[in-house]
Amino acid sequence: MELHVKKxxxxxxxxxxxxxxxxxSCPDGPGIVAAVSHFLHQHGANIVxxxxxxxxxEGGMFFMRVEFDLADxxxxxxxxxxxxxxxxxxxxxQWEIYNVSRKKRLAIFVSKEDHCxxxxxxxxQAGDLDAxxxxxxxxxxxxxxxxxxxxxxxxxxxxxxxxxxxxxxRQLEVVGSDIDVIILARYxxxxxxxxxxxxxxxxxxxxxxxxxxxxxxxxYAQAYERGVKIIGAxxxxxxxxxxxxxxxxxxxQRVSHRDDVSELKRIGRTIERVVLARAVKWHIEDRILxxxxxxxxxxx
Length: 300
Hints:
This protein has a seven-stranded mixed sheet with strand order 7-6-5-8-9-10-11, sandwiched between helices. A four-stranded antiparallel sheet has the order 2-3-1-4, covered by helices on one side. By secondary structure, the protein is α/β, with parallel strands linked by helices. It has nine helices and 13 strands. The chain is globular and about 60 Å long. Strand 8 (181-184), helix 7 and strand 9 form a beta-alpha-beta unit. The relative contact order is 0.13.
């Protein structure tokens, strides 16, 4: 069996041991950027990137993402968070500070189709996905040998209509509480509200159509019957509304009347793998802020 060894590329987390990212959501108003910048300056931090967006300067929501360097970040981060809390309270902020050197831990769920899983593994192996793939969970055994050749644990948990509740309980036990994001890489099972609640805004799904069109099953057959001229894919966070969660990324490609269902599926698989990989990358780089059923994605 061929062993796939991860390249020793220098990751972003290794290159920036003292770098942090701050994500902020709050009602818009004057002085927010100044307050954040002044606070970081007071504590010796150097801002290396800052992005902000307002939905409406008068009464709308304001979103901000700041990357900064701070000497001895690991030791100083708890104190920095404690001292920022009063500033955040002044502006009614929802906020998080992430240590870039701490890699996000991913759990990938997959069924039988492997194209999205393979793309994520390729990007991880190349060092383009700066995260730790902690495990792959599947309701089928098909990809066990392939996944384990990367040194990644593979958990086969069968799911039937009669055992779905027990299977989800087993999945929760396997995933645990130290996973940062779950990726449904063409995992062909509906996730229960109980499971979703454990990982709110931390489950990313790839839907094989350009939502909100062609929801549900057999989207390419639906697209073919309608004679569509573009097809696409949508990566979104999972909510209790089937295929209705906040959209992270979408892409499309032109097709024609000459493309049958098989060709549409082939084209669609390429779009799916690219769109999902982008969404996962943006999530692990702390570029996404969720507000109600929308996302603000600082990907520039």
